[in-house]
Amino acid sequence: MTAATAPYPHLLAPLDLGFTTLRNRVLMGSMHTGMEDFFWHYDKLAAYFAERAAGGAGLIVTGGIAPNIAGWVSPLAGRMSHRGHVIPHRKITRAVHGEGGHICMQILHSGRYGYHPFIVGASRRKSPITPFKPRALSERGVRRTIRDYVRAAELARDAGYDGVEVMGSEGYLINQFLVEHTNDRRDSYGGSLANRQRMPIEIVQGIRAALGPDFILIYRLSMLDLVENGQRWDEIVSLARAIEAAGATLINTGIGWHESRVPTIVTRVPRAAFAWVTAKLKREVGLPLVTTNRVNTPEVAESLLADGGADMVSMARPFLADPEFVNKARAHLAADINSCIACNQACLDHAFQGKRASCLVNPRAGRETELNFPPVQQPRRIAVIGAGPAGLEAATRLAARGHRVSLYDEADEIGGQFNMAKQIPGKEEFFETLRYFRRRVEQTGIALHLNTRATAEALANKGFDEIVIATGVRPRRPAIDGIDHPSVASYIDILRGHRVAGPRVAVIGAGGIGFDVSEFLTHGRPAPSQDRELFFAEWGVDPTAAAAGGLIEAHPSPSPRQVTLLQRSRDKPGRGLGKTSGWAHRASLKHKGVQMLGGVAYERIDEAGLHLRVDDKARVLAVDTVVICAGQETRRDLADDLEARGLACHIIGGAKLAAELDAKRAIREAAELAASLD
Ligand code: NAP
Ligand code: SF4
Question: Closest ligand to 339 CA?
Fold first, then answer.
C-alpha cells in the first residue's frame, strides 16, 4: 500500500519512545473487567487481551491493580504486592506479546473511593460515593504507599509487562492528595502546592529510578477535575511539567472525578468533547500526550492527531465493542466497525455492580473462551422473524457461521426499537449500530424480507429447519378512562414523528422510555446534543479550563415544553436506568424543568387534562398531550400460532420476556442462541 492510499496516516503511524516503538498511536485504555480480581479468571483475561492485541491495538493498559490492600477498589480486588501475584499476570503478557502488542499494568490505589473498611485517604473526609470513611494516611504511611507503587511496578516488570500506568486521575488516591478539598494535611504532603504534588512526583521518580530508562511509564493526569475547588489550570501545568521531569514516558488524559456531576463519557457527551484539554496541555510539555473520552471512530481519532493536539488516542470501550477496530481501520473497512455507543450498560454498569464486564453490542467481550461462533459443518435453513436488535444479532451470527438465514420484518427498515432510540437527543450513536447491522446483513448474504408479515402457514410451507422468533414487544395500553381521547399519544407516535406534542405534556410511566421521551420533548429540534458549546453550557464546564476544577455556572437551554413525568410507585423515578448513566438522565431532565411525580393514581383523561390522585388528593394536570410510556407487552402471537401447528421455535428478546426487557439482554440471548445452533 502506498503512503498516498494508507488510511489514517497519523493514527496508524508508529510511535518511537526511544527504547521501544509502538506499532501505532492507538492505546486501548484501562477498563475494569472484574476478571483481574480473581486469579482463576486470568486465562479468560489473557484471551480477552490477546484478541485486542491481535486486532491491532498499539498499546494496552490493564484494568486497575492495587499496590496494597488499602488500595483495593473492592474487597479482594486485584493486587500486585508480592511475588505470588506475578505468576497469573504472565499469562496475560505472554498472550499479548504473542500477538505483537505491548501491554502496561495500571496501578490504581482507590484511596477514599474504595468500597471496603480498610480504605485510607489524604485526610478523613468521606467521599460521596462509598459508605466507608477513610483513615488518614500518616506521613510514614504515605512513604510506605509510595514504596508499594514502586514495588508493584517492579513486580509488573517481572510479570512481563512493558510498563505501568500510574492512575493519577478520576478522583482516586493521588488525585485526592492534589486538592485542598480532600487534603487538609499539615505535613510535607499537604498545605502548599509543592507539598500536595509531592506524592505523585515521588511515585514517578521512584518507579523510574527502580526500573531504569527502558520501561514505559504512563501517568494518567487529571486535566479537568470537574469538582468544586478542583485544581486550577496553572496547578495542572506545573504537575505535568514535574511528572515529565520525574521521568514519565507518556501522560494520559483524565477528565472528571467519579463524584463529578458532569457526564464525561456517556453517550450524551459529544464525541471527543474534552480533547481540547489535552491539546491545551500539549503547548506546555514536551513528552507525548494521550487524549481520550468519547472517541469511537477512526475518523475522529485521526483528526485529533492530525490537528496536533495529541500524540496518541486512548479508547477503552470501543475495543470491547470491536476488538478488530484497528485492523478494520487499516484495511479501509471502518464501515465494518461495530461501534461503541457509550451506553455503559454492559461494561461500566457491570463493573460497578461487581459483575464481569461485557458489551451491549458485542456480548462476546469478556467471554472469548466461552461464547464462540465456529463455522458449521451442515448448514441449516433458518428463519428469523423480527429485525430488531435480537433478530439482527441472531440472524447475522447464524449466517456468519454458514447457516442459510432468511430474516423477516413487517417494517420497511431494519432496527426495531433502535429506530426510536436513535431519535433521542444524545442517543445518536444508535445510528452506528444500525449501520453496522446493515453491513453485516449484506456481508453475510442473509435473505432480507422487509415489509413482510411472516405467518405460521407461510413458514410451515417453506419447511425451515429452525425458526427464531424475535418479534419484540408492543407498548402497553393502560386501562385508564379516556385512553382514546385525542390528546393521548403513544411513545411510538411521538418518536416516529406521527404526532407532535403540545406545549404542556404529561408522560405516563417513568421507566427507560418515559425518560427518553421526556428528553426528546424537552430539547429543541434538531437535537443539539453533539454541540460541545451547548453541552458545556448545560453542565457548567468552563471551555477555557481557567476556573478551578473547570466548573462554572450552568446555563441549560430552556425546554420548549413543560413536561410532567409520572409513575404510580414511590420508587426513585427511572430506578431501572444504568448505575453510571441514570444520574445524568435525571439531572438533564431537572435542568429542563421536568416535574417528576410518584405515588399517583390515574383517574381519567378528558378535555381538562389528566385527572389523578396524589396522596389521596384529587388533582388535574392541565395538559395538551398525554404520552403513554407504560411499559411493554410481549408480541408472541406468531410463536403461539407456530406452537399450535406443532412447529417448534426459539423465542428471544422482548418476545420471550417483556418485563425488564433491554437491548443488552436481547442481543446476548440472540448471540447465545446463535452459538448453540450447530
Ligand atoms: P419500564 O422501564 O419497565 O417502565 C415502565 C413504566 O411504566 C414504569 O415507570 C411503570 O411505573 C409504568 N407502568 C407499568 N405498567 C403501567 C400501567 N398499567 N399503567 C400505568 N403505568 C404503568 O419500561 P419501558 O420504559 O417501556 O422500557 C423498556 C425497557 O427498555 C426497560 O427495561 C428499560 O430499562 C429499557 N430502556 C432503557 C433505557 C436506558 O436508558 N437504559 C432507555 C429506554 C429503555 P409504575 O408501575 O410505577 O406506574
Ligand atoms: Fe460501549 Fe455500551 Fe459496549 Fe460499554 S456496553 S463498550 S458503552 S457499547
Answer: 2
Q: Which of 309, 333, 352 is the last residue of a domain?
A: 352
Is residue 6, in this structure, part of any structural domain at all?
no
| Residue with CA closest to ligand 1 atom 13 | 630
Query: Considering its fold, how many domains does the chain have in total?
Result: 3
CA nearest to 472, candidates 516, 423, 414, 425 = 414
Atom of ligand 1 nearest to the CA of 480: 19
Residue 146 and residue 69 share a domain:
yes
Assigned domain for 618 exists: yes
Looking at the fold, whether 333 and 261 belong to one and the same domain comes out as yes
Verify that 388 and 510 share a domain, yes or no.
no
Q: List all residues whose CB is within 6 A of at least one atom of ligand 1.
A: 476, 478, 508-514, 516, 567-569, 576-578, 629-632, 660-662
pLDDT at 6: 84
For 542-571, what is each residue's pLDDT tens digit?
999 999 999 999 999 899 999 999 999 999
For 643-655, write each residue's pLDDT tens digit.
999 999 999 999 9
Task: Look at residue 525 in the predicted model and tell me its pLDDT.
Answer: 59
Residue 576: predicted pLDDT: 87
**pTM for the complete prediction?**
0.96
Q: Ligand 2 atom 2: the closest Cα is on which residue?
A: 343
Q: Is residue 4 part of a domain?
A: no
Mean pLDDT for the stretch of residues 402-412: 98
Contacts of 220 (CB under 8 A, 6+ apart): 30, 106, 165, 166, 167, 168, 169, 170, 251, 252, 253, 254
CA 225, distance to chain mean position in Å, is 19
* Residue 172 falls in the annotated catalytic set: yes
CA 509 – ligand 1 centroid, Å? 6
Identify whether 337 is part of a domain. Answer: yes
Give the residue numbers spanning the domain of 285.
Answer: 27-352
Residue 312 in this model has a pLDDT that exceeds 70: yes
* CA-angle at 308, arms to 307 and 312, nearest 5°: 110
Give nearest CA residue, ligand 2 atom 5.
Answer: 359
